[in-house]
Design goal:
The longest helix is centred in the C-terminal third of the chain and has 21 residues. The protein is α+β, with helices and mostly antiparallel strands.
Length: 608
């Protein structure tokens, strides 16, 4: 069985990424890029679906692990009765082909070690043909091949490759695994210690170039490194997670493929990168967004492949039992074809924030933005599937309407501040009309809160975004009332749920964990409304949910006390970075502008 998510650490080369457990087993890796088929899919089944374990052959008394400071180079120390060994793992920045470097170092005593390599191409389904070529192991199946170079002899055993050896203090034993197309010769073998040192230097140079608040430097830097690791370097796209189908509830069916790039992450990812000083990465993300959404505005998708691919058909992999028997395992994501109105606001806000930060406009960017707003003018009155990509009936989600308001607001501000051409009066009227409608139809005066959708009594964690985008002043009683209602009705042990799945008609069985980005948004909202001490307390409590190497999943199961959902989750780490920046006493202003023009009058009984 796979380990709890807390027991995994990330390695990657900014084009692909893998997860290595505390037991020294590489249980998940897709090659040659994030959304490629996985030759190691044990995370969604068992060892027989592909894994690569290097660990002491006997019992282990204690395990300690860490990343080398400022890097994605992982160190795992195994303490045994006979001594101590250290396993060093990394994926060097992409050269000729994707590589995995693993090095066993003797720290104390003399320890027997066993290496087991089980390759199963196509998500654990295909057993490769294995042979020896020039002293190296070559595994081939169809279009794919993996070549292993080992410092110790290996043998075949039960359709796996096994090596057994001893390591004394000062010894080093290296393993180099490289992926390549099966019709091409194996890439040359590389020196493992040399590649690890070069990878460490590469990451340290990158992480040292950023800005970090000293109070929360370690969690912010680790989150930025994670965000960089989830960036597809050739295009600048940022995938939501390197995994698919890790369940939002153990044993449940809310299991989705997150190895794609969501437009919804646009503004918050951009702000995290800009505030940390990573202008090149922010520019690359902005450019990816513009390329991906190019085309007819009505055909804009909510997500794309790492290079901007549009076809992401969803299918189920029935030969995989799923993480802790959580079925189905899904490949692709049908939500890519949904209509989600909010993404237009996110895209317009990202373009606006980039201009405000001094990132020079891309050629033809404004023309594309104007076309998108022209579409939103005709589409904002329609119901949609919303930010949470419900698979039930469409409805008029308040968050979606507010994001449509945001789209027009950012279009108006761009014209006002930068003198660009556009139908200013018409967009102002659209902005004001949406604002009035939301305040009338999305407001529950009895409970003093905005609701999930028009006419609904349900709450939604996405409502915590309203003060951040400037929809209403932060001191407005409608904002204060909504924050209080979320805390009162939508929290589990202080952590925010997206919504009550038991009450929602979202097309799926109920049940999921607390959504970590929403809880970070609550900390932001508390800080904005003058409750800084509460905000800091909540933020620091969220930091305790990170695993021992600083990683977060999408959600947290309060009852079980464990992380759930795809892992590590870019959205969670983006929210962590932005909240830390927002709470920094002398740092930049909070993530998004909060002034708001043309506000609708307050409804009766809700005076500011």
């Amino acid at each position: 069985m796979p380990l709890p998510l807390e027991d995994y650490a990330l390695i990657g080369d900014t084009q692909a990424a893998g997860l290595i457990g505390r037991d020294g087993s590489l249980d998940w890796l897709c090659l040659p890029r994030f959304d490629s088929p996985a030759p190691f899919a044990g995370l969604l089944g068992d060892d027989g679906h592909g894994h690569w374990r290097i660990a002491p052959a006997g019992g282990v008394k204690r395990v300690e692990r860490r990343y080398r400071p400022g890097t994605l180079v992982l160190e795992t120390d195994f303490h045994t009765a006979d001594g101590v060994i250290q396993l060093v793992d990394c994926m060097p920045p992409r050269g000729e082909a994707p590589d995995v470097m693993r090095l066993v170092r003797g720290i104390a005593g003399r320890v027997a070690v066993r290496m087991t390599l089980t390759i199963r191409f196509d998500y654990g389904r295909v057993v490769p043909w294995v042979r020896t070529v020039d002293g190296r192991m070559l595994a081939i199946a169809g279009p794919e091949a993996l070549t292993l170079t080992s410092d110790v002899p290996w043998r075949g055993e039960d359709l796996a490759t096994v090596a057994e050896f001893e390591v004394a203090e000062g010894d080093e034993v290296g393993f180099h695994l490289v992926w390549h197309e099966s019709h091409r010769p194996s890439p040359k073998a590389l020196n493992v210690p040399t590649e690890i040192r070069a990878t460490e230097a590469w990451w340290r140079k990158w992480s040292d170039s950023g800005r970090h608040d000293e109070r929360w430097k370690e969690p912010v830097q680790r989150s930025l490194i994670t965000l960089k690791a989830l960036t597809y370097a050739p295009t600048g796209g940022i995938v939501a997670a390197p995994t698919t189908s890790l369940p939002e509830q153990i044993g449940g069916v809310r299991n989705w493929d997150y190895r794609y790039c969501w437009v919804r992450d646009a503004t918050l990812a951009l702000l995290a990168l800009l505030d940390a000083g990573y202008i090149d990465e922010a520019r690359a993300w902005r450019d990816w967004l513009l390329r991906a959404v190019a085309g007819k505005p009505s055909e804009m998708q909510i997500m794309y492949g790492p290079a901007g691919e549009r076809r992401l058909p969803e299918m189920e992999l029935d030969w995989l039992p799923g993480y802790e028997n959580s079925k189905p395992v899904r490949l692709g994501n049908a939500a890519s074809s949904q209509f989600q109105l909010d993404v237009y606001g996110e895209l317009m806000d990202a373009m606006f924030q980039a201009r405000e930060a001094g990132v020079e406009p891309a050629e033809a960017a404004w023309r594309l933005q104007a076309l998108l707003l022209e579409f939103v003018e005709s589409a904002w009155r329609e119901p949609d599937e919303g930010i949470w990509e419900v698979r039930g009936p469409r409805r008029h989600f308040v968050h979606s309407k507010v994001m449509a308001w945001l789209a027009f607001d950012r279009g108006v501000r761009t014209i006002e501040r930068y003198g660009l051409d556009g139908p200013l009066d018409r967009w102002r009227r659209a902005r004001d009309e949406i604002h009035r409608e939301v305040c009338e139809r999305g407001w529950d005066s009895e409970r003093s809160t905005f609701t999930q959708s028009y006419g609904s009594k349900a709450l939604d964690g996405s409502l915590l975004i309203l003060p951040q985008v400037g929809f209403l002043p932060v001191a407005d009683k409608r904002i204060l009332g909504t924050i209080d209602a979320v805390q009162r009705e939508l929290c589990s042990d202080g952590f925010v749920l997206r919504y009550q799945t038991e009450e929602a008609n979202d097309g799926l069985p109920p049940g999921e964990g607390a959504f970590l980005p929403c809880t970070f948004w609550l900390a932001d909202a508390l800080a904005l409304t003058g409750r800084r001490d509460q905000a800091v307390s909540l933020f620091e409590r969220l930091l305790t949910l990170r695993n021992d190497v600083g990683l977060l999943a999408e959600e947290y199961d309060v009852r079980a006390g464990r992380l759930v959902g795809n892992f590590p989750q870019a959205f969670s780490h983006i929210a962590l970075i932005n909240t830390a920046m927002n709470l920094h006493e002398t740092g930049p202003t909070p993530a998004r502008e909060r002034s708001c023009a043309g506000l609708a009058p307050l409804p009766a009984g809700a005076e500011t």
